[in-house]
Amino acid sequence: MRIDKFLKVARLIKRRTVAKSAADGNRVSVGGKAVKPSYSLKIGDEVTIAFGSSELKVRIKSLDEKTARIHPENLYEVI
Description:
Elements lengths: L2 H7 L6 H9 L3 E3 L2 E2 L11 E6 L2 E7 L4 H6 L5 E3 L1
Antiparallel strand pairs: 1-2, 1-3, 3-4, 4-5
């Protein structure tokens, strides 16, 4: 799954266009490296999102889009 879509589906960022612009602005990184919106996530990746002066770091547990509609918190765990 693309990282911009994952951030929206997991409800970490409200809109996919906002997730895309965050990735374009080097505010989203995977494993310490800034990624583009088309980056393909894998289970176990550690994603860091910069929100102003704070950061959120999560580990990907699942990429199932259907599960995300009911329980988006099952897609990731906060580190």
